Amino acid sequence: MPDQYDQELPDGYPAEYEADVVLRDGATAHLRPITPADDDLLVAFYARVSEQSKYYRFFAPYPQLSDRDVARFTQVDYRQRLALIVTVGDEMIGVGRYEGTGRSTAEVAFLIEDAHQGRGLGQLLLEHLAQAARENGIHRFVAEVLPDNRKMITVFTEAGYKVAREFEDGVIMVEFDIAPTDTSFGVMQAREQRSEALSIARLLTPSSVAVIGASRREGTIGNALLRNLRDGGFPGRLYAVNTDADPLRDTEIEGVAAYPTIRDVDGTVDLAVVAVKAEMVADVVLDCAAKGVRGLVVVSSGFAEIGDEGRKRQRYLVGLARSYGMRVIGPNALGLINTASGVSLNATLSPLMPSKGRVAFFCQSGALGVPILADMVGRGLGLSSFVSAGNRADVSGNDLMQYWYSDEATEVVLLYLESLGNPRKFSRVARRLAGRKPVVALKSGRATQGVPVGQMVRRSQLPAATIESMFRQSGLIGVDTTGELFDVAQLLAHQPLPKGRRVAIVSNSDALTLLALDTMAGCGLDVAGEPRNLSADATASDFGLALSEVFADDSVHSVVVIYTPPVQSNGGEVAQVLAAAAAGSDKPVVSTFLASRSVPEELRVPDEDGGAARGSIPSFLNPQYAVGALAKATQYAEWRRRSDSRIPDLPEVDTAGGEDFVAEFLQRHPSGADLDDADRQRLLSYYGISVLPAFPVLSADEAVARATDLGFEVILKATAEQWRMRPDLADIWRHIHDEDDMRAAWAEMTQTFGVASDPGRAQFVVQKMAPPGVPVVISAIEDVSFGPVVTFGLSGVATDLLGDRSYRMPPLTTRDAAEMVREVKAAPLLYGYRGSDPVDISAIENLLHRVSRLTLDLEEVVRLDLRSVLVSAQGATVLDTRIRIAPNEKPRQDTPARRLT
């Protein structure tokens, strides 16, 4: 990366404010706090700014900065006075700052170089300044703007905050609270999607490509890349770059114009495909920056996958490329494909160029990319675009999902994931995309939660079920194998979504019908009436009659057709009948037709490019695969049809009080600590969660006295952690009515559990009896990778042993909370199992929302357990809690300010 500092960083420099960002046009830049060493950078920047822009900033002619100005602008305390600058390469192109004007108010101002205005710098700076200000106790921004400075007024008014404006003495006074709102977050997400989509479009739609490391020697990577680009039909300008080439003699490689360096190319280059030794890549990046290249595909290996040295090299590569405005696919990547008309780009190591289609694919594994492409070609499944990202140091699945969200050529998205670099953003982006297009995802390494070699991500400590729950929450279609991935894609690319779970079967094989029925039962699909079992020698007319009946039946939502041909029959007539019956129907049809695993020619509706258009009927090797794919599509369709779900407004929530409490607690416990009972009660009260008080007692006399104060009808409970989950011991003595009951309970409990070794430490508590009910547990944990995760389950050793828990990432919608309660296997106990009284489900959902809100607001709450909650028909009573607060050493990755992570 370009040198940012000529001296050591000043005290208090907030390195966490540094960020790589994507501008409105898809290019990247670096944002960071200013330092005193930036004096020359600031002066050079100011000299390039127009007089009008200077006037808008200072309200008067201000041709140059004095030494005093430079010192004031570059020397800040990073709390009450902060300046953030945006750089590209070695140049500053924009600066934003705030200066405190009161206890919680600051004045904010910006100055953007004229050549870079309109690229969204002001909006990005405002987002990052607001986030930093909130962390430093500032809650409101004010600004003075000249009336004709419309661009700056727009920055404030379109940020999503509620902005108040007044006109005074020829100046517009702008004032607004900077707390994130649903509107401001929605604005940020929309801007993020547009800019990140453009950054990927710059990679996928180049008009010129250079292969750096091109070779005329067959069998080399550089030769394969050049051949595949040339033979794939890329219509743009193609260049070969070989540093060993003689510029006078080696003017062509494989019929492509050759040059010794990319700087020597006699035209513009949009995309560079890099296949040189790892230690040479950094120099190539600098050459590409000088040439104005917009993006890189780094096929070279020798980076994070080889160890510490490679990780350092990889970090440097990404930082260097981003600092000059370029995104990177790779390193150690297979490459990218775009089949769009007029592009025909095969910048991969695979000679297979899939046909044009409606399915997009993101793959992290370079090794798996080649067989994946071969499988797609074998199935005749057309592609819109394909990216295999290798070490995924920069461009990730999140970026591709942002692009495919608005890509009209893509109707179905496939993801093969080895790791999740930013799970919170992944969940947010995937949920938005899945609301528009189906997303099918295969995550490897779920059992081990391992991080593949070469991928530099935070390692989660959460169970594999967390990822499965996140997929469900986000509307993703999770699959377990690559075969299942393509089975589901084959259905979604050609057939409509099911409108329900009722499936009709038309078959001429009893054995295969039974397989279909067994699979339907296991997948939760319902049989619509009796299967239409035809004879083995059924004719096309027989199939036609049965098919006309099921397609006319309004109770049928999907159709499975099984055709096993008799001897000396090619099934052509049956295919014609099936295609005619399905034409124009809104019911999806899947088939097991002649044991094909593609779209048979006889069942294909040709599109303009000769591929299979919508309405084509896919065939699967056997009914199990067909029904399995149909079940996945049905589940996704149900997710799409869900009733409107919202994040509820919660009364009695005092976020500011909770934040102040956490700050005060960390002042008392700088390294973090578990909260005592009083502190737990206080923190939970800010979020409207009340806990039934429990009173520690050290003797039988104390227990009697406390029970007397409570009016008896109490319990005596052992508190030592080792006794809580012992199924052979009762750690609670219930229904204590009077002094005799209490003394008997004390004698029995102390004989069973002993007494505390520390006389001053209570081992028992007295607590008022709660209404009888079903015990449940609600927890939240701050994971280094996922951020906050909320869990729910019923109490007990058995449910713990079986892992019967549901998981969700905050914020929880009303639907999320409802699904959490209902998806645990023991949920029937809450709904009146075997004649018991149903409990108040809404009370559980209310607690889930409040815990979700607390852990989302307060990331220093690293663990929260409502570990004993009794739920009855009358409501929920929280009996026991555990909370730990600790400094957040690694901030959450998905913040209200846009950044590349």
From TrEMBL:
Keywords in alphabetical order: Transferase
N-acetyltransferase domain span: 29-183
GO molecular function terms attached to this record: acyltransferase activity, transferring groups other than amino-acyl groups; ATP binding
Protein name listed in UniProt: Acyl-CoA synthetase (NDP forming)/RimJ/RimL family protein N-acetyltransferase
Domain of life: Bacteria
Entry-linked InterPro entries: Acyl_CoA_acyltransferase, ATP_grasp_subdomain_1, CoA-bd, GNAT_dom, NAD(P)-bd_dom_sf, Succ_CoA_lig_flav_dom, Succinyl-CoA_synth-like
Source species: Kribbella shirazensis
Record's keyword annotation contains Transferase: yes
